[in-house]
Every structure is written in C-alpha cells, then in structure tokens.
Specification:
The chain is of the alpha+beta class. Helix content is about 25%, strand content about 30%. Helix 1 runs parallel beside helix 15.
Length: about 775
C-alpha cells in the first residue's frame, strides 16, 4: 500500500514543485558538435523552405485585428505516416509565423516554449528553429542550446496537437523583443515504430481557434497504403480535402500515398468566456491513423472504416459491436492469465460474498457489489494469497491488477458475470464525458467510458479507483449521454438504447466549513481551526490527497473480513523484540507514513495559499471520515495561521473579515459579456459558518455591511453576521443551482459572483468597549 501511496503522491507533488535542468553548451564532445552542426543545417533548410512559401512572406495585419495583442500570420502543420521495410516512419513538421502587436505579447512571448517527442520509439529525431524579423527587416536567429527543461504548466499556445503522445517541453529566452517583431519558428519531430500487425497511432484532437487570431492555417496528412483514417470535424470546422499523390522522404511521388489537407482562414481567437465546454462550441477536429491486417481487423477494438477512405462517424450498432469485442477480448491479460480468467476469479469472490445479502433492491445490491469489488482490488496489495489464491499461485501475477484504477474491461466483464449469476439483468453502458460532447462525437477509443447498468437502478457503475464511489466517480460524467446495450452474438441485432445520466442536484454536492477564529493579543496573527465536510463530487478533488494519510484499507478489512483483521492486529501486537524482522518492517512503515504526511502537509499548505492571500503556517490536519460511500461525506480538519488581515486604524483596528471565506472571483469588464452557454462540472452549494473570538474588551463595528441576499433561478449568495457576547457569528451560503445554463442568464451568475467578491472585501472596525455603544 505504501508503495502505491507514494507513486500516487508523486503525481500530485508535480502540481506544486518543478525544477529546471540547464542544458549547457560548454564542454561539447566532437560528436555533440557534429550533431549541433547537423541541427543548424536542418534549420537553415526548413527556413529556406518557409521563405519560398508565400504564406510566410506576409507581414501586414488587417484592420480588424489591429487592436489584438498578437496575430498568427500563418500556421502550417504537416504529418506523414509512411510504411517502410522494417518500420513505420512518422514525421511531424509545424511551422508558424506570429506578429507581436503590443507590450503584453512582448512580455508573454519573451519566454518561448517548444516540445520534442519523448516517445519510447527508436530513431527519434528532434529539430527546431527560431528567428526574429525586426520592423527594419533585420533577421536574428535564436540559438536553442541554452534551452532548459520544464515541468511546470505550459501555456496553451505552445501545446502540441497530439492528444496522448508524450512530449517533453523546453523553454528558451528570446531577448530584446519589441512591438512589431515577427517570430518565425518550426518544430520537426521524426521517429520510427516497429512494423506490427496492428497499431493505433497517436490521435490529434484540437480546436482551430486559439489564444490569438489566425490569418491562415493548414494541416497536411500523408498516409501510406493499408492505413485506416478516422477524421471528425465539429462545430463548423472545415473538412479534409483529398489531394494528389503524396511524396516519400526522398521527395518522390508515390501513387500509393494519399494526402489530405485541411485549410482554415481568418479564424478569430478563442472566447474570453470561462465555464464552458470548448468541444461543444469551438470548431475542432479529430484525426487518427490506424494500421490493421486482415487478421487483426476481425478483432479490432477501434472504429475502423475502409482502407484509404475517411471515416467520420460511428453508428450505435458499431459501438455495440466494437465494445462487445473489447470486453470479451484477452488483450489485457498477462503472459499466464487471460482477461477472462482474472474476471472469473474476481466474480467468484464477489458472488460468494453476496450470498449472505438478502432482501435488498437491485440498486443496493449493485452498490454492495461495487464496494466489495473495490475492497478485493485494493487489498490485493496487502493480502494477495487470501483473496487471489488461484492467481497468485502462478509464477507471475496479472499485470492488470497492478494499477490503482482497475481496467474498465475487467471491471465490466466481472460485474456482468456477477449479476448474471444472480439472475439480474445488467447491460454494458458506454458514456461520453461532457468535455468530449455527446454520442455523435464518438469516433476514437478515448471518446467514451465504459460502465455497467443494472436493471432497476438509475445509477451506472463505473470503474473505480481507491477513492471513488458509485454515484460520484467522475464529475465529467454527471449529466453525460451515451448508450446501453446487451451483448449478443448476432452482429446485426441492435440492442442499444440512448441514455442520459441525470445531473446531480446542488443539494448533493455540498462543501461545508465550520471555522473558529482566534485573534492574538498583538492583533497580527489569526489562528484558524476549520472542520471541512465535502459530499458528492466535491470529494473527488480532495480524496486522492487526504486519504494518503488515512488507513482505509484496514477499515475495509475490518468490515469485510474481520477474521484476518484480528489476525493482523495480533501480528502487530507481537512485532516487538521477539520478532526483530517484523519490528523493523513496522519501524519502516511508521517512517514512510511520516514522510507521506509531511509531503501531504506541504500540498495542503499550497492549497491554502490559493485560498487565502497570506498564510502564516499550517500546523495540523487530520481526516476523520473517508467518504468512500455515496452517503458519507469526506471530513477533515485543519489548523493554520493567517497574517495581515488586521491593521491599526488610529486607536482601533481594521479587520478584513470578509477574507475569511477565502478568495473570490473578481470580474473584469471583459467577463461581463457572454458568448457561450455556461457549463460547470456539477451544481454545488458552499456553506461557511465562522465564529470569531474577539480579544477581551473589544467589539465589532460594521457587521450590518456583511448582510447580503442575492437569489435568482441560476445562483444565490446569502450572508449574515451578528455579535453574541465576545463572538462574531458569520453565515455564508453560495449556491450554483445548475450545471448548465443559457448565456442569456449570464447576469444571474455575475450578480452572484460580484456579490461574493464584494463580501470578501468587507472590513469591520474592532473598537474598545461594549457593543451596545455602537
């Protein structure tokens, strides 16, 4: 468990810490000098080609975009998939020209990011080049040898079009930029993949609008014979145009190569709106290339059309056929164990447990099966022999059991077997996450999530991780659309039904805080004790961090297998000097737990820094309830110090009391207009109850200014404050009543947001004396 915890923790640490490894040009070996010279020659060749292209000769910007910060004059992206004797050669060349029109762009682009392919493939070749054209016509080339590796967040403007392909980002400083400068740059990546019977190349999914307007952009795809192509275009994006035969790496035209082009002109920049699903509004495209032989085609788990022809849509019957094949396949087994064997072993354990469950509804039985399944999976790490004896007796364990999140195919297959044994109808569910769209957007294998729908229940069971629950596994599926179907052997029989998961109510997703505040005698520090309770989808954001310090495995063990739990307690009690090996293991476990707690403490402090302007310290936190069922909240407490909320005001003190609810969104004038509908992951309610203990002899003047009441059909903000003895009691409630709303209702939302911000800026005066003197 500890190994698993630390692996998961590493993922979250990346969000808060990063390092830069400087790539120095000093001490180059003769080999590295030759490589640098080779890259320089390649750069010259690419820039020469760009200079011959009329797209990259444009320097003027039309009047309609004169007030923009910057404008892309041209973007040209070329991709090729060529089958050679022993390998598939994949080449990417992205060329761009951007003109800087104001100081904001100069500041933004003075540090330039670029990416290189970090794929495990062999024969990887990366090349890039940057040059600046001054308004005078002077051209300055930028040397990339001083680029540094980055792991922090990369601005969207620099991201690759790849959806999944691993890329490594670098950053280069571009000195002396000025308004009116033009930056030309290119990124070229080439790599080889072994020839195999079946391969899915990395998909492209991207919007055609971006941070800045684009005068002209085009994408060229050259694909060899025998490849299959999926291409989808949405929200008025242009389609592909088939062109003449393509050319290979020698520049020779080959009739068996097909070239497709997408051309897009005069594209406005992306909307300033926040809280909207881009793929439901913005023009975007999907593109993926596959290679299949006649043998693998019969069992493919991809949505495949005809070789050499574009496939742009998927029917419900195709979804049923491909997903059925995927669930029944053995591809996720290990060398010794198949998918079916793992599923049967899991199902056998769950069925045995369910025999003692009587007189419950199908919905309740499904939830019990889900939780016990999760227990089996997570306890595999601690007690493999007891729970998976037939599996673990083999030389190698099943690789599918090594991940925190269970394989969706094993999850579905196992539960279908379980419910079949109980003579309960269960169907496969295929849901499209809201961020991707609806059923009409299914085209690639990443466009859906699998689950199980049990007859008599509105809930769908989705693959679990250590922390998810039945109803609240993924907010991107709250209100999502999809299909359910019963697997059948006859491929011509369509059993699919369209479904939509009901969106959760804001009363299901509640974040409550109960806060006690003490002001020290010097009026410079504020001690805060806060109890947090999160229900519904609010748990998703905190559970993976907080539960690293909470022994939920032992709790599950106590619930589902008390015998082995008691034996474990006896073993722990006896692990003293009589058994030095167990004592040493226990000591290491305690040490590792302390290390994890310290790291989680740092993450929690960083979270508080995002919530409050000036954190003094985080002194303690602890979890009292894991929230690993639908009906139970995640509960944890924190103790921390806040600074700079109180300032001397003559003989009195000014207290920024509104900031105790945390930072609130400040809307600039740009955000008061709305272009798109409003989309949230889920409707929600936030409740704050705060008790402020004032120093002896002081009262608060101005509490009446803390009362607000804004309510409409979309949102609400209510607050009140009163003095009782030496305490100030504050209640604040903020509600997002809907997860989706039409843009015409945007003022409802801005009224709530601006009221919340106004409250956060409120101050009271702390005066000596009794409150009745006000």
């Amino acid at each position: 468990m500890l190994m698993h915890q630390k692996q998961l923790l590493t993922f979250f640490i990346i969000f808060f810490f990063f390092h830069l490894e400087i790539v120095s040009g000093q001490g180059l070996t003769p080999g590295s000098k030759r490589e640098e010279q080779h890259l320089s020659e390649n750069s010259k060749e690419v820039f020469k080609s760009m200079d011959r292209d009329s797209l990259f000769q444009v320097t003027k910007i039309s009047e309609k975009w004169k007030e923009e910060s910057a404008v892309f004059i041209a973007i040209k992206s070329t991709y090729s998939y060529i089958r050679e004797t022993r390998a598939d050669r994949i080449t990417e060349l992205v060329e761009k020209r951007i003109k800087l029109l104001d100081k904001a762009a100069v500041s933004e682009l003075s540090e330039f990011y670029y990416y290189i392919v970090s794929d495990n493939s062999y024969g990887v070749s990366n090349n890039q080049g940057f040059r600046i054209t001054k308004p005078s016509g002077k051209v300055i080339e930028i040397n990339t040898k001083d680029a540094v590796d980055v792991t922090d967040q990369v601005p969207d403007i620099y991201k690759s079009y790849y959806e999944n392909n691993p890329v490594k980002f670098k950053k280069i400083a571009i000195p002396d930029l000025q308004v009116g400068d033009i930056i030309d740059y290119f990124i070229k990546n080439e790599y080889l993949k072994d020839v195999v019977n079946e391969v899915s190349f990395d998909p492209f999914v991207f919007t055609l609008n971006g941070t800045y307007p684009i005068i002209h952009q085009e994408f060229d795809f050259t694909v060899d014979r025998g490849f299959y192509i999926n291409f989808g275009f949405y929200n008025n994006a242009p389609s592909l145009i088939e062109e003449e035969a393509g050319v290979d790496k020698t520049g020779r035209k080959r009739g068996n190569l097909k070239t497709y082009k997408l051309i897009d002109n005069q594209r406005e920049k992306i909307s300033n709106d926040f809280w909207y699903d881009s793929r439901r509004v913005d023009p975007y495209v999907k593109f993926q290339v596959y290679y299949e032989t006649s043998v693998t085609l019969e069992n493919t788990e991809n949505f495949i059309g005809e070789t050499g022809k574009i496939k742009s849509s998927v029917s419900p019957l195709e979804v049923q056929e491909v997903i059925t094949r995927k669930v029944e396949s053995n591809k996720e087994g290990s060398e010794l164990l198949t998918n079916q064997e793992v599923s049967k072993e899991m199902a056998r354990q769950i069925e045995r447990y369910l025999r003692s469950i009587k007189g419950v509804s199908n919905e309740k039985l499904a939830e019990i099966a889900y939780c016990y399944f999760r227990f089996l999976f997570t306890n595999k790490y601690n007690h493999p022999v007891r729970y998976f004896s037939s599996i673990e007796s083999t030389t190698r364990s099943a690789t599918v059991l090594e991940n925190k999140t269970i394989s969706e195919t094993i999850f579905v297959r196992t539960l279908l077997d379980v419910f079949k044994d109980r003579e309960i109808k269960a169907e496969i569910a295929v849901l499209v996450p809201k961020s991707i769209g609806t059923t009409k957007d299914i085209l690639l294998s990443d466009d859906y999530v699998l689950g199980v729908k049990v007859d008599g229940s509105d809930k769908i069971l989705f693959p679990f991780d250590n922390y998810s629950t039945v109803r609240y596994s993924n907010p991107d599926l709250d209100g999502a659309e999809g299909y359910t179907f019963t697997p059948v052997r006859n491929k011509r029989i369509n059993t699919t039904n369209e479904i939509k998961i009901p969106s959760s109510d804001y009363k299901e997703n509640i974040y409550r805080t109960n806060t006690e505040v003490d002001i020290d005698g010097k009026f410079d520090l504020i001690k805060v004790k806060r109890k947090n309770s999160k229900s519904g989808f609010f748990k998703n954001e905190s559970s993976p961090i907080l539960l690293l310090t909470y022994d939920f495995l032992s709790n599950d063990l106590h619930k589902y297998d008390p015998d082995i739990y008691q034996n474990q307690l006896k073993e722990d009690a006896s692990s003293g000097s009589a058994n030095s090996r167990k004592a040493e293991e226990k000591r290491k476990e305690v040490s590792n737990n302390e290390e994890i707690s310290n790291e989680v403490m740092q993450i929690m402090k960083n979270n508080l820094k995002n919530e409050f302007e000036d954190i003094g310290s985080l002194n303690n936190f602890y979890v009292t309830e894991s929230g690993r069922t639908d009906s139970t909240p995640l509960i944890y407490s924190e103790e921390f110090m806040l600074k700079n909320l109180i300032n001397k005001a003559g003989s009195n003190y000014s207290f920024n009391i509104g900031k105790l609810i945390g930072n609130q969104m400040k809307l600039s004038e740009n955000y008061l207009k709305r272009n798109n509908e409003i989309n949230f992951p889920f409707a929600r309610m936030i409740r704050n109850e705060i008790a402020v203990n004032l120093p002896d002899g002081y009262y608060a003047d101005g509490l009446d200014d803390l009362t607000f009441n804004i309510e409409n059909e979309s949102a609400s903000f209510k607050s009140s404050a009163e003095m009782q003895g030496s305490k100030i009691y504050i209640k604040v409630e903020k509600i997002y009543k809907k997860s989706t709303d039409k843009k015409e209702n945007w003022k409802n939302w801005t009224d709530m947001l601006e009221t919340a911000y106004t409250f956060s800026q409120k101050k009271v005066i702390l005066r000596k004396g009794n409150s009745f003197k006000k």
